[in-house]
Amino acid sequence: MKRLSFLALIVALSGCNYQSEEEARNACENWKQRSRSIVESKMDESPPVREEDSAKEYERDLREINASDRPETKYSRGDWNRWVISKQALRQFAKEAYEARKRIKSMEFDSRQKEFDKKADKIGYFYCRREESTRQYLGYKGKSGQQEKIVKHFRY
């Protein structure tokens, strides 16, 4: 009887895998990332990558606007003013076009990310939840339309 209680004590003590709550949380997050990458590898497509913004296109447009021909000095003051105003309008148009391209790319990325997440959820998703009463982080696995299961314990 004493041997069994001693064995139970050893098993209980050996269950404390991590020295601190932070270590347990980090281990759970690492598990979640590894599990997510396994799910992604089973998919026929890779996760979407956020494209670079169109700042280079905007800079190119501004260079082209600034490099455009200036009116010669023989033109009247009115021609010069029209040229300056048209340059300002072109710069404003380039800025608005840049902002619009940036918004469109962001919306496209968000849409691709949502579609990818839906497909990944059908294969499986993972997350961590802290359970303070038992001093552990629980690793959950689930599939879309099914009950979630606890598949990993990270005690601290």
Biggest β-sheet strands, sense, barrel: 3 strands, antiparallel
**Global outline:** elongated
Helix content, binned percent: 55-70%
CA-atom Rg in angstroms: 30 Å
Low-pLDDT stretches are: 8-14
Taken together, the total number of domains comes to: 1
Main structural class: alpha+beta
Mean pLDDT over the residues: 78
Query: Counting H and I runs of at least 4 residues, what is the number of helices?
Result: 4
- As laid out across the biggest beta sheet, the strand order is 1-2-3
Distance between the termini: 29 Å
Strand content: 5-15%
- Listing every helix as H and every strand as E from the N terminus to the C terminus, the arrangement reads HHHHEEE
